[in-house]
Amino acid sequence: MVMMAMKNKNLFSEYGNQSCYDEMFDQSGKVRPFYERLYQQFSKMGAKELADRNFLIQSQMVKQGITFTLYGENLGDISAERTIPFDLIPRIIPEKEWAFLEKGLKQRVRALNHFISDVYHEQNILKDGIIPRKMIVTNPYFLPEMVGLDVPNDVYVPLSGIDLIRNEKGEYYVLEDNLRSPSGMSYVYKNRSLMKRLFPELFFDYRVRDIDQGLNDLLSSLRSLAPHHKKDPLVVLLTPGVYNAAYYDHVFLAQEMGIELVEGRDLAVVDQKVYLKGIEGLRQVDVIYRRIDDEFIDPLAFRSDSVLGVPGLMNAYRAGEVALANAPGTGIADDKAVYAYVPDMIRYYLNEEPILKNVPTYMLSKPEEREHVLRHLPEMVVKERTLSGGYGMLIGPKASELELKEFAAKIINHPERYIAQPTINLSSAPSLAGERGAAARHIDLRAFVFMGKDIRIAPGGLTRVALKEGSLVVNSSQGGGTKDTWVL
């Protein structure tokens, strides 16, 4: 009788109303129309059956080696390797909503690409006082080696990962721009594959937009960068190797796009050209999709102790004999202080009003903004400008008195290193909490944008879930999970 009751328990019977915007339920607790069929199907199945299916999914992920490496307090210390928890209740985005996001994302990436090109050439945006020059030229991601260097088709960011959130009213905001080497695309495709296998009936009921074209769009963007407009370029993915946190991501993308997965030792530079070493001899490489940070890509140009990169790679790049994606130095636009100026970039370069909003951002190098943040620190999220993945971050409402005190001291000692934002109660969505049924968990969305001859976006992207109750940190590096994202 106990087992029968557990099997028949409605998945949503204990799902409570939230103080934030809920993706599936409106404020009165009524199911939003575009979730109705999914709600009915999952309610009929019950918590026990869904928990069993979830167990099958996690087993498949282990067998397929779909893993992510977690690090300790020191970022170089590997603490664990695990599967990214997959939540089998999908997130649904209606067609009109996605069309709005798509338009805003294209506008934003176009402006960011203009900005990167400008700061490495004429620097008009600095001359006109739109962005403080000091913020750029003293930035650790600004590469003097890129000044005056023309990149293929003037495309600096063939792949971007733009993180979106919703506030309490359901309005979308851009939280971060990830332009160096955004990770997570492989999980978008694996999530979809797992969902189709376990819930084929749902894909008959819903007209979900296909995502397979996204990998072709990425490959097209990479191929379009080939020097001398080569028709059949050799494209490779340069990985730091098996110990990198996102190594599964590298392997998956290389396999699915049909390109070579290489490490630095597999490449050689001869007469300012890059070659792939193999049993058939040397083959000239035209495009390198790199998943290695700027400082490690070439020990002759940057860190001399790097064993991950390729000696002489930057000389070949300057000579126009190889393309790098994303271009070195794009991290200048990842800076969390530069982020605050993206709406100004859109107006400056495109002469348009921003479609997607920024989260209000305080620049702690400004005394009056710093004082305001210090007075309201328990209400703020504070981020170290050049870190990502949830590191170097304070979430004021969740912090202890000691943590608040320690972070206040950091801000006072080095205000230029930090920005602050008011805490936004991220939207929530139902997530499977074992046989107890569904529970509300906060989510965000990483949209993947491909820039080549035109700009394309993979429908949906990666919904990330803060699996700990009440947590606002969704990053995989901090223990977050993922959902399949359906665009209707």
UniProtKB/TrEMBL annotation:
SUPFAM superfamilies tied to this protein: Glutathione synthetase ATP-binding domain-like
Domain Circularly permuted ATP-grasp type residues, every copy: 90-466
Pfam families according to UniProt: CP_ATPgrasp_2 (PF14403)
InterPro entries: ATP-dep_Glu-Cys_Ligase-2, CP_ATPgrasp_2, UCP005522
Stored Gene3D superfamilies: 3.30.1490.270, 3.40.50.11290
Protein name: Circularly permuted type 2 ATP-grasp protein
